[in-house]
Amino acid sequence: MKKSNVKNRIAIYPGTFDPITNGHIDIIERASKLFDQLIISVATNLNKKPMFSTMERVEIIKKSVKNIKNVSVDTFSGLLIDYCNKKKAFVLIRGLRAISDFENEFQMALMNRKIDKNIETVFLMPSEEYTYLSSSLIKEIASLNGDISNFVSNFVNKKMKEKIKC
Ligand code: COA
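# coenzyme A complex -> structure
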């Protein structure tokens, strides 16, 4: 892909977002200030078995980012790099919470660069208060009737409660 599109810098923030947490939102706010357009892309063909369907996750994310003007929400399947090219994006955003994230993220970033040398991965660190958050932990706490209100928005909290009741 040519870097001819530098005047409209499009970045993609891919992930499972099952559900989106305050830590993800923190990364989204930071990335939205660095790029002209940020596309949050929900992965649909993962080995993970998500609690929320793809469309539910998209709806929840849209509601969570509705006040950030240059952010849109989309889905993708297949190779992330193919999706980046389709969207004319040459930056991938990933959050780095702790050293433990590094190895896997490093491997993915280098593999993606090997597939397409024009696509750069930009790592952003969330605020310290979110470095221990993960969607799995939040699902576990919620399913055991624990309080997750410090980790997710009110809307996500409500959706989690509805889902757990079903
Ligand atoms: N705040 C809170 N939690 C965060 C976070 C942050 N800032 N950043 C990451 N996380 C958590 C997520 O909640 C998730 O937790 P969980 O495992 O408990 O659910 C975990 O970190 C990692 O999830 P996520 O960021 O969604 O990444 P992922 O590993 O599920 O998704 C893809 C990775 C989708 C980007 C990757 O699998 C991919 O690119 N797939 C497409 C196929 C492809 O191209 N493969 C080749 C890759 S080289």
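# post-check
The chain has a mean pLDDT of 93.
Residues 99-115 form the longest helix (17 residues).
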